[in-house]
Amino acid sequence: MRHIPNILSCIRVAMVVAFIVLFIKHCYIACLILYIAAFLTDVLDGYLARRFNWVSNFGKLVDPFADKFMLISALACLFFAGEFPLYLLIVLIVKELLMVIGGLIVLKKKKVSVYADMWGKVATGLFFASVSLSLINLAFNHVIPSWIMTTLYVSAIAISIFSLFHYAYKAGFIGKKYRERNAYEADIPEE
Q1: What is the pLDDT of residues 41-52, one digit of tens each?
Q2: 147 is in which domain, residue-wise?
Q3: Which residue in 73, 91, 92, 75 sits closest to 83, CA to CA?
Q4: Which of 79, 106, 138, 163 could form a disulfide with 84, with the two C-beta atoms 3.0–4.6 Å apart?
C-alpha cells in the first residue's frame, strides 16, 4: 500500500506521453481529460504520502519530475499550436531548471528540507486552469477571450517566479538565512 503514491507518480509520467500523442492527433478534449486526471493523481498521491507517511526518497524525486514533465510538455504542445508564447515557455523552463539545480544541492547537503507551500500551490493551480482553458479554447474554437488567457498565464509565471525566490530563501540560498549559513560554515575549521 505504501507504494501507491509512487505508482501514481509513475502513471503520471506515462500520461505525458499519451497527452503528447493525443495532442498531435488534435484530440483536445481527450487531452483535457488526461490533464485533469494527471492533476487529480498529483493531489491524491501527495495526500496519501502525507496522510499515511508513505514518503520515500524515490517519491521525492519522481513526483516533482512528473509534475514538471507534464506542465512543460503541455505548454510546449500549446506553444506549437500557437496558444502559448515562446518567451513565457523559455522563462518557465529556466525557472524549473533553477528549481531542479537548487533541489539537487539541497538533497546533496541533506541539511534543509523544502516542501511545497502556498505560493507553489497557487502557481500550480493557475497553470492547471490556464492549460485546461487553453485546451478548451482549442477544442471549441477560442471561446475564452485572449486577455483572460494572457492574464492567467502571466499570473502563473509571475507567482511561479516568486515561489522560486521564496523556496530559495527557505532553503537558505538567498537572504538572511544565506548570510547566517555562510557565516556559520566559515567558522567551522576544516579537518
Answers
A1: 999 998 898 889
A2: 4-187
A3: 75
A4: 79
